[in-house]
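Subject: Predicted fold for SOUL heme-binding protein, 198 residues

User T.R. writes:
Posting the sequence so we have a shared reference for the thread.
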Amino acid sequence: MGMVLGKITVETPKHEVIHSTNDYEIRKYSPSVIAEVTYDPTQFKGDKDGGFTVLANYIGAFGNPQNAKPEKIAMTAPVITKESEKIAMTAPVVTKTAGNDKLMTMQFILPSKYATAEEAPRPVDERVVIREEGERKYGVVRFSWVASDKVVAEKVENLKKWLARDGYKVSGDFVLARYNPPWTLPPFRTNEVLIPIE
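User M.O. replies:
I've generated the structure tokens; pasting them so everyone works from the same file.
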């Protein structure tokens, strides 16, 4: 019942709030190890969350873990998604885009017991990449309900305005962090838009 009402019972990334306003927070995140998959949403019938099953299979959320050990890996929150530009590969592999020039990247932050990428179980699926992220700083705005494209775009625009107003320099594109499973009732969902800053 707790997950339906938005209770977050899994590990979340370690961070320090270094500045807080009524509108947003500035957070410094500790280094972490992530599992990520980058994909073309058109291969998943336009589903921007199409990479979720690939990552869930890696950690063993739906049965046997799809990693070399095989070791079941605890789910953490949030699930992170971001858009990225398609980049053509160099020879001998050539890729062509079919109109949609956006790829999606979905990330699971692995439990903190994995301090380096080498400590994490090696994925069986070659689409899953394990990598380390160093310490980073973000401007963050939290919100509930459904993280629709329209709502996220509004949150990003407002956060950029607030960061500029307060003298922060944006250093990259936003990411969307969702903390709850899809069956959580919308008013109890926790979502965040994070924009990297210098």
